[in-house]
Design goal:
single chain; Rossmann fold; alpha/beta; 8 helices; 5 strands; 5-stranded parallel beta sheet; 38% helix
Length: 227
C-alpha cells in the first residue's frame, strides 16, 4: 500500500480529504500544524478525526507564525463577522495567513521524505469565497513542480511526487455530501476562526457562515455542536 501525507487541520475540508486519500487506497499519515492560530481548538478535532478515519499515524508540528504576523488568525486584528457572500468575494480577507500553505506543504513534503511517501494531500478549495491565493490550482501545480526538483527521491529519479487536492473544485455542499458518503463523522470537525472564551463557535465568521450555508444547502443538519 502506498503511503501519503495528509495535511489535517481538523476542519471539514481536511477531514474529507483524509477520507478521500484512504478511499483511494493510500496508507495515510496525518500532519497537523500548531502555527499559533487563534482557533487552535481545531487541533483537538484533528486528533479525533485522525482516529475516527484510521490514519496510520498522526503528528503535530509546532511553529510560531505569529512571529511573522500579517493575519487576523495569528494576531490581534479583528476577524470579519457577519459578511455576505458578495462581501467575502470582494477581496482577500485579513484571515489569509501569508505563505501558510507553502509552509505547510513544505513540512508535509519533508515528512513524506522520511516515510518514503510520494503523495501529499491538502484540503485546498478554490471555490470558497475567501479566495486565498494559496488554495488555487495554479499554486498547487507550482508546488508540485517545486517538489520534483527539491527532493532526494526526485533527483534520484525514484518516482514523481504528487500533490493531490481532491476538493479543489467542489462547493461546500459537495464537500459535505462527499464526507457523508465516505463515512466521515462530521460532528468531530471544527470550522470557526474565532471561538468564544467558552470554546464555542462564534457563528459569524466567514468559516462559520460558509459551514452553516453548506449544511443548509445540502439539506442536512450540522451534527457538530457549536463548530
Amino acid at each position: 500500500m502506498r503511503r501519503a501525507v495528509v495535511l489535517l487541520s481538523g476542519g471539514l475540508d481536511s477531514a474529507v480529504t483524509l477520507a478521500s486519500a484512504r478511499s483511494s487506497g493510500f496508507e495515510t499519515y496525518a500532519l497537523s500544524v500548531d502555527y499559533g492560530q487563534r482557533h487552535a481548538r481545531e487541533l483537538r478535532s484533528a486528533g479525533l478525526v485522525s482516529a475516527q478515519l484510521g490514519a496510520a499515524g498522526h503528528r503535530t508540528v509546532s511553529l510560531d507564525l505569529r512571529a511573522i504576523g500579517g493575519s487576523a488568525l495569528t494576531g490581534d486584528a479583528a476577524v470579519p463577522k457577519g459578511r455576505t457572500a458578495a462581501g467575502m468575494a470582494a477581496s482577500i480577507p485579513p484571515t489569509y495567513v501569508p505563505a501558510r500553505n507553502t509552509i505547510l506543504l513544505g513540512l508535509a513534503l519533508g515528512y513524506a521524505e522520511t516515510l518514503g511517501a510520494f503523495d501529499l494531500f491538502i484540503g485546498a478549495n478554490a471555490l470558497d469565497y475567501a479566495g486565498y491565493p494559496d488554495c488555487r490550482p495554479e499554486f498547487l501545480q507550482a508546488f508540485e513542480a517545486l517538489a520534483n526538483v527539491a527532493t532526494k527521491a526526485s533527483v534520484e529519479n525514484l518516482t514523481r511526487l504528487r500533490v493531490h487536492a481532491p476538493l479543489v473544485q467542489m462547493t461546500k455542499v459537495q464537500v459535505i455530501r462527499e464526507g457523508l458518503r465516505l463515512g466521515v463523522n462530521l460532528a468531530l470537525t471544527w470550522s470557526c476562526y474565532d471561538p468564544t472564551p467558552g470554546g464555542l463557535a462564534c457563528g459569524l465568521c466567514d468559516a462559520c457562515v460558509l459551514r452553516r450555508a453548506g449544511f443548509a444547502d445540502a439539506g442536512v443538519a450540522d451534527p457538530a455542536s457549536g463548530a
